[in-house]
Amino acid sequence: MQKETITRIKLTASEGHILTNGENYGRVVYLASGDEGEKWYEITEEEYEEKMKEEEAIDQ
After folding, report:
1. Do 27 and 12 contact (CB within 8 A), yes or no?
2. Is the Cβ–Cβ distance between 51 and 23 less than 8 Å?
3. In Å, what is the CA distance from 29 to each residue of 13, 15, 41?
4. Which of 3, 8, 13, 52 is in the most buried spot, having the most CB atoms within 10 Å?
5. Apex CA 14: angle with CA 8 and CA 17, to 5°?
6. What does residue 57 show for φ and ψ, rounded to 5 degrees?
7. What is the pLDDT of residues 16-58, one digit of tens each?
């Protein structure tokens, strides 16, 4: 039997903010193996809402 310890990194947005890497959005993000999180940053909820409206307009 082999036993491994795996560490997961969890990023949580500050209140009133959303995390993004420019493609994906979330309040909580669990990083993939090898991802240090430098690609992720916070935007305000207002910026997020505006982005979603823009993307919805493009889809229609």
Report:
1. yes
2. no
3. 9, 15, 11
4. 13
5. 110
6. -65, -35
7. 999 999 999 999 999 988 888 899 999 999 999 999 999 889 8
